[in-house]
């Protein structure tokens, strides 16, 4: 049971001027998880950030709904690689001799 209150998907869609089908299609692709309580569809609070990111990708960059999973996977991969580069730079700095 979540500790934070669930957000009605209809409220999210109204705020962002989205069709509820967009949210359903994201759930079908495994990009978000929905909860249904008494025939009302809810979003988990921890999914608001990723969901808003998906909305921006769809609207601002015109990424088709079918391609959002690919784009998010590539963005996640890029963030992981950037983290690896940072860790390797830190290790390299540790082993470099100090300049006098």
Chart the SSEs and their pairings.
Layout: E1 7-8, H1 9-16, H2 20-28, E2 34-37, E3 40-43, H3 48-60, H4 68-95
Antiparallel strand pairs: 1-3, 2-3
Question: How would you explain this protein's 3D organization?
Answer:
- There is one protein chain.
- The protein has a 3-stranded antiparallel beta sheet.
- With 100 residues, the chain is mainly α.
- It has 4 helices and 3 strands.
Features:
about 100 residues; mainly alpha; three-stranded antiparallel beta sheet; 4 helices; 3 strands
H/I helix tally: 4
Beta-strand percentage range: 5-15%
Which structural class matches the secondary elements? mainly alpha
Spatially, the strands of the biggest sheet line up as: 1-3-2
Coarse shape: elongated
Distance between the termini: 58 Å
Point out poorly predicted stretches: none
**How many beta-strand segments?**
3
| Share of residues in helices | 55-70%
Written as H for each helix and E for each strand, in order along the chain, the element string is: EHHEEHH
* Average of pLDDT: 92
Rounded to an integer, what's the Rg over CA atoms? 19 Å
Biggest beta sheet attributes: 3 strands, antiparallel
Brief description of this entry?
This protein is 58% helix and 10% strand. With 100 residues, the chain is mainly alpha-helical. Strands 1-3-2 form a three-stranded antiparallel β-sheet.
């Amino acid at each position: 049971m979540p500790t934070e209150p669930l957000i009605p998907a209809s409220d999210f869609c109204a705020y962002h001027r989205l069709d509820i089908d967009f949210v359903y299609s994201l759930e079908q692709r495994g990009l978000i998880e929905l909860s249904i309580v008494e025939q009302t569809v809810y979003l988990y609070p921890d999914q608001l950030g990723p969901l808003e990111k998906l909305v921006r990708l769809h609207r601002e960059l015109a990424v088709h709904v079918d391609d959002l999973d690919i784009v998010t996977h590539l963005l996640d991969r890029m963030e992981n690689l950037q983290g690896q580069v940072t860790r390797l730079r830190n290790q390299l700095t540790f082993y470099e001799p100090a300049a006098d």
